[in-house]
Amino acid sequence: MTGAVTLQHFAGAHDIFFEVFGGFTLSGHEVQARPHRHAYHEVLWIGGGSGQHSVDGVCAELAPQTLNVITAGQTHEFHGVQNVSGALLCLEPGLWRATPSLCHTPVDWAIWPLLWQVLGSEYARSTQQRSHALRESLTLALRLLERELAPGAPGRETSRVARFHALLEQHFRLQHDVGFYASQLHCTPDQLSREVRNSGGHSAKHAIQERLMLEAQRLLRLSSLPVDQVAEQLGYRDAFTFSRAFRHGVGVSPRGFRHLSSDDTD
């Protein structure tokens, strides 16, 4: 696997933060099999090979001619990798509001090898036109990704749901109440919950709790923070309130979950 990625901006292109790896490979002895996460998005195109890829506890096969999108902050790990090759695009979160899509198979999969080749060649150039060419190539790549991962133009209701989830990503640690998000979106809490339920089958309150529990599981797996500090980071007034919510949402206590997670990675 590639080494640690440091996203840097290019001379004359201060709004471009991304890295392209056109010869990306994964092999068993190099793959980090323990859970880890990054502060940037990763778009991994699998050209060939096999293995498993787990993102936030959901595991799927690494199949040829598929796209994997790992958003900033998601926990992921690889297992049983054999001769996996392809291309990797790393993006600053500000460049693209990514939608997680594990092992998604694009309809126009034949275009992706060509797209990576264009991105990689422009990335490697050292000319005055490089920043413009990079911007145009990256714009094309992101537009194609959006088409593949979220086909169709959203209506007004789904647009508000998308804005709700974007706000949730920004404020879930401090804002646990549906009323806050409804006020930001200029609707009533009941209206917001109805639209979120129509979109995903669950209420806005459930979405907030689900996001909190996801982050709690990440912190319990990836850090050694005591439970009371995890509770504090997630905006709970005390460890007891957090532990009760965690047990209700996950089915086990925070300490029990940490113990089980430790056993899984031994």
TrEMBL record:
SMART domains noted in UniProt: HTH_ARAC
PROSITE patterns hit by this protein: HTH_ARAC_FAMILY_2
Domain of life: Bacteria
Pfam families: HTH_18 (PF12833)
Parts forming coiled coils: none
UniProt domain HTH araC/xylS-type: residue ranges: 162-260
Residue stretches spanning the membrane: none
GO molecular function, one term: DNA-binding transcription factor activity
Keyword flag DNA-binding: yes
PANTHER family, alphabetized: ARAC-FAMILY TRANSCRIPTIONAL REGULATOR, TRANSCRIPTIONAL REGULATORY PROTEIN
Protein name as it appears in the record: Transcriptional regulator, AraC family
